[in-house]
């Protein structure tokens, strides 16, 4: 579709098309389940009434591929794990808050921190910052199970990918053959269009 950038379009055309496309896409999504994998072959005519630039968007002839011979495919939504969904600082704050809660009485002053907690926080900070400290594998199985449990809550649904295999044809070229059509009104319309928007 590179030739689109070489044609004469009225300023604002792209923005107008984006707004229209957004509404059309909303309707499409409302008609399909997010877990549905489906195909289509859009056949569109795009014309700038001010400049006469016009193109036809059709499926590019092909077989196989991810679109399976079609011009458009929307894949089903997928479940994915987002490892960085929560900022590291927030994760550490939550874990430390849980540790402090286990050592401080529930009726204690909010600012109170026992010597045990202070020592634990100091040791934790030192261990995290020290790359030379080797991990203790004593509780490896339990730690792995806990990590899997935590990461299990970072799953989210991502919209399926959309794939396009379309080509852009100059509409004047498409209309040209109809200037010799047997039906008079079709022939006249084609001749008028070519004379108005053709190069010659």
Rough outline? elongated
- Spatial separation of the terminal alpha carbons: 23 Å
Main sheet record: 3 strands, antiparallel
Mean pLDDT comes to: 80
Structural overview:
- By secondary structure, the chain is α+β, with helices and mostly antiparallel strands.
- The protein contains six helices and eight strands; from the N terminus they run αβββββαααβββαα.
- The strands form three sheets. Strands 1-4-7 form a three-stranded antiparallel sheet, with no helix packed on it. A three-stranded antiparallel sheet has the order 2-3-8. Strands 5-6 form a two-stranded antiparallel sheet.
- β2 (44-47) and β3 (54-59) form a beta hairpin.
- The radius of gyration is 31 Å and the shape is elongated.
- The chain starts with 12 loop residues before the first helix and ends with a helix.
- The model has no long low-confidence stretch (mean pLDDT 80).
